[in-house]
Specification:
It contains 5 helices and 4 strands. It has 152 residues and is an alpha+beta fold. The chain has a domain of 106 residues: Ribosomal protein S10 (Alpha-Beta Plaits), CATH 3.30.70.600. This is Small ribosomal subunit protein uS10 domain-containing protein.
Length: 152
């Protein structure tokens, strides 16, 4: 009875929503990852999910070494690059969220991994490449200031 009264008062049922979520995509093939990010964006908008933002993170370069059996001698060495893309969604109803994630998981290409997590400020910082010149100027400024001496 109370549910019907609530429905009549508001005109629509109240469905819980997720906080701002990041759909994080990682893979070794740049072209596949870029195309999948476009697909994620398109599927989300097709399901009336509000996409707030999408961005790339600087790639990680990994050095992988394979050793000869039972020795410490390097047999082969590989350099691998891991690319990362993010799609941020907001106001995602909980009833649509599980369906969206299931569809995205089903369409996930081979070699691409997907994680979904709540957006935090530290995720915002990782998307920017540090400016070497700016960092050098900051260190020079610190050197000019000298040691910090506190007065009592």
């Amino acid at each position: 009875m109370s549910i019907n009264l609530f429905f009549r008062q508001t005109g629509k049922p109240k469905i819980p929503q997720y906080n701002t979520l990041n759909i994080q995509l990682k893979g070794y093939d740049f072209a596949v990852l870029e195309n999948y990010q476009k697909l994620v964006h398109k599927i989300a908008e097709g399901m009336d999910v509000e996409v707030e933002d999408g961005w790339a993170v600087p790639p990680q370069h990994l050095k992988v070494q394979r050793f000869k059996p039972e020795s410490t001698i390097v047999d082969t060495e590989y350099t691998m690059t891991v690319y990362e893309r993010n799609v941020q969604v907001i106001h995602l109803p909980s009833t649509v969220g599980s369906i969206l994630f299931e569809v995205l998981q089903t369409a996930l290409p081979e070699g691409v991994s997907m994680t979904v997590h709540e957006h935090k400020e530290e995720h915002e910082e990782t998307r920017y490449i540090p400016d070497a010149e700016l960092l050098e100027l900051k260190s020079q400024l610190e050197e000019l200031r000298g040691p910090n001496v506190k007065k009592k």
